[in-house]
Write a structure and sequence with these properties.
109 residues; mainly alpha; 6 helices; 0% strand; elongated
Length: 109
């Protein structure tokens, strides 16, 4: 469950601008602020089922965006490569310039 939550948080972070205001609000309340379905439904004066359906539909939309755009996948690969480069550089000795470039890459995210 934690893995799914982490993935949804990343997908939401990358693609939230493509969602409607209601979708953004429900996803933020559920995944980021950790509200329950009941709490969200009370605050928005809708049924718990309506909130659940909206969140599930939005999860599907986010996964579809990722399937087409691959922003999260590229982010994970880039992060992995940076970590690998950092380990390689740190074990090889004095590579201050390379370490500076790796740190600059990290700051881009």
């Amino acid at each position: 469950m934690l893995e799914k939550t982490t993935r949804m948080n990343y997908l939401f972070d990358f693609y939230q601008a493509l969602l409607t205001l209601k979708q953004r609000n429900y996803m933020e309340m559920y995944f980021i602020e950790d509200y329950s379905l009941g709490e969200i439904s009370e605050l928005n004066l809708v049924s718990r089922q309506a909130v659940y359906d909206n969140i599930k539909r939005t999860e599907t939309i986010l996964e579809s965006y990722e399937q087409h755009l691959h922003l999260y996948d590229k982010f994970k690969k880039r992060t992995s490569l940076i970590d690998e480069m950092e380990k390689t550089v740190s074990t090889k000795g004095d590579n201050d310039d390379l370490l500076k470039m790796i740190n600059q890459l990290k700051e881009l995210d």
